[in-house]
Amino acid sequence: MKRIRTFLSVVVVATLGAGCSERNDQTGPLSAEFIAGQTSVVADAVGDADKTAQAYLDIVRAEITKQGTNFVFVMTLAAPVPESPELPSWADVMVWQPILDTDPTASPVGYPFTKNTANPFEFFIQHRVYRSGFVDPLDPTGAADVLVDRRPLLTGGQATVTPIKVSVDGAQITFVVDAALLGDPSTFNWVGVTAAAKAGDDVKNAYNKHFPFDFAPDVNSGAPTAVWPQ
Q1: Residue 36 pLDDT class (50, 70, 90 cuts)
Q2: Per DSSP, what are the bridge partners of residue 126?
């Protein structure tokens, strides 16, 4: 496992766009009430987010379960996510995301970070809200929910963006990702993050300002990353 302190300054959040999302008013197939599966769960204290964070950016629970050929990620927050969350005045995007380190030997360099910035997480699984009028430097469609695969950066390519299914149900966000898109890993390290970011002027400069609101586990306080499965 790579030491958490090597990425705290850059882990906070990527922002790329394209995806599909839905809001549910009742429990459905994306509920946190999972059938039995391989699971990893992190409980996080209420009120430990940055003092500038709204309650819907305060993570109180994050969990991952493999169900058949899918990974299901659920993030529970201290308050319901509004239809139009307010971004910080400086930010281009706000993000709720599990991030995965599936290869302890790799630290891709580049997008969604700057062109010379290495970060050990290969996958960012994101629900985001963009500033009105902003266009992501990599994905001009600007849709809400994607899987960001950074592995191509290791061989001189560009990160890829794949739409995923996301359900926002009150204070709970549920992400469903085909395991094959993650390389169907047998284990990985992970963290849940809420954050905001400001973009650079092109895809190589990507997002040059990242501000985390909350982590689960609290890696910012020295906690280790979570491991799937537990």
Answers
A1: low
A2: 146
User: What are the residues facing 96 on neighbouring strands?
Assistant: 127, 194
Q: Which residues contact 119 (CB under 8 A, 6 or more apart)?
A: 7, 10, 11, 107, 108, 109, 113, 150
Domains defined for the chain, CATH in brackets: 19-27+40-228 (2.60.40)
Pairing of strands 70-77, 172-178: antiparallel
d(CA 156, CA 101): 19
Residue 209: Cβ-neighbour burial (10 angstroms; 0-12, 13-18, 19+): middle
Backbone angles phi, psi at 165, to 5 degrees: -95, 130
Question: If you average pLDDT over residues 118-133, what whole number do you get?
Answer: 94
pTM of the predicted protein model: 0.85
Tell me the DSSP string of 98-158: EEEE--TT---BSTTS-TT-B-S--EEEEEEEEPTT---SS-TT--SEEEEE-GGGGGT--
